Amino acid sequence: MEFPASRQGALERLEGFLSGAPRYAARRNHVLPGHPHVSRLSAAIRHRLITEAEVVEATLRRYPFRAVEKFLQEVLWRSYWKGWLEMRPQVWQHYTASVQRKPDDGQARAVAEGLSRSGIMNHFARELLETGYMHNHARMWWASYWIHHCGLPWELGADHFFRHLLDADPASNTLSWRWVAGLQTRGKTYLATGQNIGKYCAPEILAAAGGVGFEEGVVARTAGGEEREDESASPLEELPAECEFRNGEKTAVVLHDEDLCLENSPLANVRPALVLQFFPETDSPLPAPRAEWLAEARADASRRATEHFGCPVQGCSSREDLLRESVQQGVTSLLMLQPCVGPLRDELSGLSEELAGCGMKFVRLRRKWDSVLLPHASRGFFPFWNKAGRLLAKSGTETLT
Ligand SMILES: Cc1cc2nc3c(=O)[nH]c(=O)nc-3n(C[C@H](O)[C@H](O)[C@H](O)COP(=O)(O)OP(=O)(O)OC[C@H]3O[C@@H](n4cnc5c(N)ncnc54)[C@H](O)[C@@H]3O)c2cc1C
């Protein structure tokens, strides 16, 4: 698969990609057919078929920090966005409520389907629909086109990405769209220009797409300028990074889409009676590329969990299912890696009380990587990187795993 959907596939892709990692900084912004200068590992990392720590560790095993700093920085953008949103869940709630309120008009649909005035944006739109992927620079251009050139609500564009991207991530997606719209860094919008696209997009892609096809001189629209959103941060909830197994407990561990590598997680040493796969059904079916990618990644994770824990694996497609199955199996403790702010976390809200009502303990854990790094996302990326980068340069992932 072009976008690895198994742990083994992701590890192999990483190994192959790393030979060119020192040239990443110079080449990453160029949009070429097949995207050879970027790793295309984002779906695998987002769902933790491999972890950020493993990517960083493998990179630093081969190269000195300075030679690959740009690549490491990009890998840590994900943790930065996660931390920023994790400490401001109200921004996610505000976004999801806005999506519900905005009408999906004909123009938004035409741009999303690749039927707009701009040849190159139509090319990227179709690439997203067909493959579930868009290069980072193209995402910036496309989001900018949507917001500033077409005057469409950023929330609808973000929602479209979130449905189609294989790597759909509540934090990276929502906050990147907010950044292009000028909300994330107040007053600083990102405006795509024909000149920049001409410089970084391969001529063969541009020619086949029929050129840029939009006028220069568009003025950036500052979305949501009227009213300043509440961006106050709350401290990250403290959760353990280790789990002690107590004799006499009948434990079930939960496998979910936010972390598909239980055997390499704080839950690895647990001896559960059962693994509950919690893959809730969505309101409407997922687009084919994403549905297929997820099906393969889940099957891979489930296979590895069965092998590692040596106990039965049971599927649950709703939170009611999860509760019912736990009760029926006589589970006394339900263990789970805490999902970050996003739809899965929304789906699980109140579960703790329900489990307690049935006499069960709900134990949530967090990887050390997240516990250490996420709280540093209190301001902008560069103060974050000053701390995180210094940590990596000094002792690699030693204090993070
Ligand atoms: C409007 C917009 C929406 C986006 N939505 C998402 C999303 O839903 N999910 C998502 O994972 N990324 C999102 N990104 C970030 C970025 O575009 C992708 O992570 C990147 O294109 C993935 O391709 P790659 O694996 O080949 O990246 P590479 O260049 O090979 O980067 C290596 C890894 O670093 C991480 N990374 C790189 N760039 C970023 C970034 N800007 N932000 C966060 N992490 C990054 C990814 O895990 C990636 O796999 C968005 C960016 C924009 C501008």
What does this molecule look like?
With 401 residues, this protein is mostly helical. Among the domains are: 88-209, Orthogonal Bundle (DNA Cyclobutane Dipyrimidine Photolyase, subunit A, domain 3), CATH 1.10.579; 251-365, Rossmann fold (3-Layer(aba) Sandwich), CATH 3.40.50.620. 50% of the residues lie in helices and 6% in strands. The protein is built from 19 helices and five strands. Strands 3-2-1-4-5 form a five-stranded parallel beta sheet, sandwiched between helices. The longest helix has 22 residues, at 288-309. It binds flavin-adenine dinucleotide. Flavin-adenine dinucleotide binds next to helix 3, helix 5, helix 9 and helix 11.
Give a short synopsis of this structure.
The protein has 401 residues and is mainly alpha-helical. Helix content is 50%, strand content 6%. Among the domains are: 88-209, Orthogonal Bundle (DNA Cyclobutane Dipyrimidine Photolyase, subunit A, domain 3); 251-365, Rossmann fold.
